[in-house]
Design goal:
303 residues; mainly alpha; Na+/H+ antiporter like fold; globular
Length: 303
Amino acid sequence: MPSILLTGLLPSFLLVLLGGAVRRRLSENAWAGLDRLNFEILFPALLFTTAAARPIDPADLLIVGPLVWSVLALGLGLGWLARPFGPSRFLDFAGGWQTAWRFNTALGFVIVQALPSADLGLYSVTIGLGIPMANLFAVMALSRGEGLSLGPALRRVVLNPFLLASLAGVVVGVTQIAIPAPVLAPVNLLAQAAIPVALISIGATMDWRALGRLDRFSGVIVATKLMLLPAAVTLAALALGTSAPIVPVLVVFAALPTASAAHVLAAGFGADRRLAATLIAQSTLLSAATLPLWMAVAEGLGR
């Protein structure tokens, strides 16, 4: 397990360190422009290709969907408990709040493939259904933070690039529409750049002094993501006495650190980029200690 985590986490941290090393080589406006590029083009390409990459059985929507969405909704609810300790401006709070339910898709693939009891196909369905809902929750929270009235807020939600891309990917996954290779190839190239660019920007933006310490706000958010959500899934499985194939997948899904895209989305709405970047780094760093525990639990429940 340590070697699995090293494989999954070390490259990310090296890119974050690179961002910290070169942060003064670019102006604040340049870093903001890079985040805008990621928000408008690179991450939407990644979300689309991730959701569309594998077939989604329509029958699985009725089984996996409610379970995945329940985990995300629980993260949203538990993360709200951090509100009294967070920034006074709601938009800044929303930028950090979203990290309580969003998830690191790429690391999940690494872990699921390493667990004999976890089904990679079910994980693909899980993230295909989880990405749109996680983004919907995040965009709604950030739109509310901008103080928009109902009409403009709904437009921001409906036209958000993250939401549109993830929904389009799910449609392709369900319908299995064949996208011509010359069309899909540039989308894949853009998708490959999304995570490296985001991680470098996180390193350049985050508050490095806050990385090693948790205040009450970040403590609630990070504990929700890394401990409370997988614990809730585990207790529910034990209470129901089930060892269905979806159980280990859901435990891993719930235990994943938050997504680097959270920083990109926060920046796109004008929320505090530094707060989001620091929460992402804290979540990812601490997951090196929590993930081995939940991997063992997931494997035990899947037997």
